[in-house]
What does this fold into?
Amino acid sequence: MNILDSPGKQQTQKELYEKTRTVIVKDSSAGCSQLAAEVADLIRQRQGENKNVVLGLATGSTPVPFYKELIRLHQQEGLSFKNVITFNLDEYHGLAPDHRESYNRFMREQLFDHIDIPQENINIPDGTVSLDAVYESCLDYEKRIEEAGGIDLQILGIGRTGHIGFNEPGSSRDSRTRMITLDRITRRDAAADFLGEAHVPRHAITMGVGTILGAKRLVLMAWGGNKAEIVQQAVEGKVTDRISASFLQEHDNATFLVDEAASSQLTRIHLPWLVGSVEWDRKMIKRAVTWLSHRFEKPILRLVDEDYNESGAGEILTASGRAYNVNIGVFDLVKHTITGWPGGKPGTDDTHRPERADPHPKRVLIFSPEPSDAVMSLGGTIHRLVEQGHEVKLAVQTSGSLRVPDQAAQKFAAVLQEMAQVIGDDASSAGGEYASQVLTQLEEKGLFGDDSEDVKRLKALILRGEVRDAAQVCGLESDAVIFQDLPFYENGRYRQFQMTEEDVDCTAALLEEYQPHQIYATGHLADPSALQTLCYRSIEGALERFKDESWVDDCRVWLYRGKESEMNSYEIDMAVPMSPEQLELKSEAIRKFQSISQEELDSSGRNQTTAKRYDQLGMAEYEAIESFQRRG
Ligand code: GLP
It folds into this structure.
């Protein structure tokens, strides 16, 4: 399908709910090569006519694979950008163009330095402009867009608040290029890039919604499960200034280009029977019935024929008889997902249990992409697995050092330095010297400089200590914690990590040595550039290498979710309940991550929501539930 084609009228029933044309692609690379091919066509067509093309460009991790593809087209297929003029959406206020987090530098590193675009054709809002000159500078930006003939094609990403550019909630339909105050969620999302929320600028200069809608063509890209909810709201919800991306509904040539994970909340994917015929297998029936139960806020067993009919799920009854029978079937399915024995219950009939009883004990390998991920998502389950006698190992995939603020490193180095002075022997004076070096390096690098090897090592050690403490609260001895330190993380930075075969080698070596019966992993639904995704791919790659080995056949992989959208009730294959004490124990474990911002670490709310949903379905009422999906 040609995504630059004019959308025309939306006809199909599938798209009835979608108010902006939405193209779903398998993954970001499929979407980006399609889009890049269309852009290349446009550039060439204009070259033939001796005309310029004006592109509106975006930053963030979303367009990175698109830029990579443009660079490839330039380097390998001779695509020239000499007739291309670009306007970027936005820039942080207060950052110089060479600041490592400025969008100016980002664009040069990700695209401009690798293609033949003339310097004078590049336009990016000036983040260094003084407050009293901002207004003029924004007016000038608008004028330059106009003089270039307007934007032919504007590329967009979407922030978690639904913003395009930096048009935070409240930005009006007619807003123009201006300075805005960044939303709390946006600043939190940028915290990892800026080594802590406190360092994220408070203001930015952005094209307005009106400026963006002035483009002749708009393509908004979104990848990964963490964008699913906001994409659904922007595409299917009301047009509102709370979600500036929803204004795309008012443009007659706009397309949402999303991958499967980001499309997962769209009605045609999430509730497909509402938009057409579906095959009513067990999974689909479970999905529809749990949805009905949540929708009517009625336990599954109290749903009646009318509930099915009135909400477009009447077809199930035609296929399977009365609501009563269907209800019982689904009730049992959900009930059987609940288990206090995540490693399987030895010596019992396991026909309806999520995990098999034998072998017991099992070798269990829990992967945690960042040091805190696993404890946050399955701290209670880890505790149970250990208590139930399994051989549990926690594999911390990346060192996490990039998340540790300088102050934490400073504090440890200062203590070490003082200790060396107090003790005064040779051994401690070596430690003292190391500590002084770290302190000097921290001072020299400033807030945004790159960490030296010494500083990185110290930060990683701090987190190692914290993981061990947290794991211990969950019942794991410190020798059960393995630190993989995957190379992609050590050599990269947030949003720009690149995985290599070396990462797969590391994970393969671990799997081969341990040959687990159970694996817990996450990252399958995260944004493709997220480190969780790369960590997950290293596991998939490693498992693929051993696919003919019998231990892999005998190994079940349980997927958990991190920051992506929460698991829907119907997606849960194993629900591990928690008592108030267990939840408190997990919170205690999470609090051990003292060097990481506590706001990022709160997960009990999510576990409690899952429990409330199960309660609402008519299951037993638990304090909290940790949920897992079985990898197919
Ligand atoms: C920032 C940018 C947006 C971008 C958004 C999402 O807020 N100003 O233009 O769309 O981040 O970023 P990402 O693509 O990394 O998810």
